[in-house]
Amino acid sequence: MDRDKLDPEFQYQGDEYYSDENHVSNFIVISNSKNVWVRNISALHFVTSVVQSNAGSKWITVQDCESREPVSQRWGGRRFIFQMNGQLCLVQRCLSQKGRHSFVLQGSEASGNVYLNAQP
Predict the structure, then answer these.
(1) 73: pLDDT confidence band, cut at 50, 70 and 90?
(2) Looking at the domain assignment, is residue 92 inside a domain?
(3) pLDDT score recorded for residue 117
(4) What's the CA gap between 34 and 43, in Å, rounded?
(5) Is residue 101 part of a domain?
(6) What sign for the dihedral angle of Cα 44, 24, 110, 59?
(7) Domain range for residue 70?
(8) How many CA atoms lie within 13 A of 20 on its CB side?
(9) What are the Cα distances from residue 20, in Å, to 24, 25, 41, 48, 81?
(10) Domain total for the chain?
(11) 94 with 118: CB under 8 angstroms?
(12) Given a cut of 90, is residue 94 above it in pLDDT?
């Protein structure tokens, strides 16, 4: 007997998620900037990043921020919630819900970055 067909309790049910990408991809993008402070923000349904610091950025602080329920496909460069590609960035007390790679350092320029008390 096939147990899965007889008892619905044993049937696999995957998590439902929304993959529509026809909306804003990034919330805050920081490029070629110094001494930037981002704090106390909440983001809902973004595709890629809530805060993204690009190369050429330095001394960025991201504090007490949260990302809730990202809406995107689950592959490629999507759902990289707090993405620090600059230098000497501090991300502290931030929350990421359902991120694929919630706290990311990318690129050869990314150095001296810290994630403190982060909650994936």
Answers:
(1) confident
(2) yes
(3) 95
(4) 23
(5) yes
(6) negative
(7) 18-116
(8) 6
(9) 11, 11, 23, 12, 17
(10) 1
(11) yes
(12) yes
The model's pLDDT over 58-70, given as tens digits with 9 standing for 90+, comes to 999 999 999 998 8
The one-letter amino acid at 10: F
Q: How far is CA 23 from the centre of its chain?
A: 16
Burial 104-115 (b: 16+ CB within 10 A, else e): bbeeeebeebeb
DSSP state of 67: E
Distance CA 22, CA 101 (A): 21
pTM score, whole prediction: 0.79
Predicted pLDDT of residue 66: 95
9 in any annotated domain: no
Phi, psi of 104 (to 5 degrees): -125, 135
- Cβ proximity of 93 and 74 under 8 Å: no
